[in-house]
Amino acid sequence: MAIIRDVSDTALWVAVHRAMEGFRPDALFSDPLSLRLAGKRGQEIATKMAGGSFMSWMMAMRTVAIDRMLELAVSNGVSRIVNLGAGLDTRPYRIRLAASVKWIEVDFPGIIAHKNHLLKSETPHFELSRWSVDLTDPGERNKFFEYLRKSDEPTAFLTEGVLLYLENSEVVDLAESLHDIPSLKYWIHDYREGGYARGVPRLWMKWHMRHAPMKFLVNDWFGFFRTLGWKVKACISLEEESQRHGRTVGRPDWLGLLSFLIPEGKMAEYSRQLGIVMLEKA
To answer: Taking the model in full, what pTM does it have?
Structure first.
């Protein structure tokens, strides 16, 4: 039986690795609520899935890079942040942004109910609301976007770890839908040059991720979005973030001992292909 049963399981997996940063003596952030949300199921997944040290490194760098992007967006006038496919993200309880910020989380009903139940006694640092929306359903997605169009509040969208599970055509639909929202100022997401299906062993993908396959694949990530009317406002590679904090680039330990045969230069090149980008309308 595959460890990952569906896309929602990946949220549990990610939450554990995000929480693990807080146990380091040189922790860049503390996120104990993620461990609460992940529960026993999340810890079981994290234990059984290969690539633990790489995942922990990647999630720590991705998290702090996105935090920086959000701070930049707010400093540039954004007062509403929409977290599409929010998963088990706990940023409203962890990061400090302007108290006037409005944070909207959107995800499947099961994820939203889970967070509402386990976090009901916690107080966010700014206004927080959650919406149960199946983003794969065009009707539900468009209804939510229509609600957003009614406000002219400067908005940043965050789609962390979302695009990789979409078909190329679905990413096109999302990019066009976001572009049509007048109040949208920025779109923040994680990128992988060459697409997410590359650089990951095929057998590992075929077995562990067969119920949550990574689908989005383009040779030129930034060129793909440029043709859809977007341009880069800011970009942070995971290598850059790793150097900024004096961290060693994580190794893909699903290769076992072979991972140590990979030259440091190759690992640095790989980490440059991963990062966070903030797009704005061209």
So the answer is: 0.88
Residue 266, in any domain of the structure: yes
CATH number, domain containing residue 89 = 3.40.50.150
| Token pair of 76 as six digits | 């540039």
The span from the CA of 144 to the CA of 113, in Å, is: 18
Distance in angstroms (rounded) separating the CA atoms of residues 138 and 145 = 10
What is the model's pLDDT at position 34? 96
Write the DSSP string, 184-220. Answer: EEEEEEEEETT-TTSSS-HHHHHHHTTTS------S-
pLDDT digits (tens, 9 = 90+) for 185-225: 999 999 987 654 455 555 555 555 555 566 788 888 999 99
Residue 177 located in a structural domain: yes
**Residue reference for tokens 């539900």:** 140
Does a structural domain hold residue 75?
yes
State pLDDT tens for residues 167-190.
Answer: 899 999 999 999 999 999 999 999
Higher-pLDDT residue of 255, 245: 245
What local confidence, expressed as pLDDT, does residue 136 receive?
A: 81
Of 115, 108, 51, the residue nearest 89 (C-alpha): 115
Flag whether 157 is in a domain.
yes
Distance CA 106, CA 234 (A): 24
Q: Which two tokens stand for residue 216?
A: 């989005």
The boundaries of the domain holding residue 113 are: 51-281
- Based on the structure, what is the number of domains in the chain? 1
**Cα(46)–Cα(10) distance, integer angstroms:** 10
Backbone phi and psi for residue 274, each to the nearest 5 degrees, phi listed first: -110, 145
Helices (H), the chain: 7-20, 32-48, 52-75, 91-94, 109-118, 138-149, 168-179, 202-208, 221-226, 238-244, 264-272
- 3-class secondary structure, 110: helix
User: What distance in Å separates the CA atoms of residue 64 and residue 86, rounded to the nearest whole number?
Assistant: 16
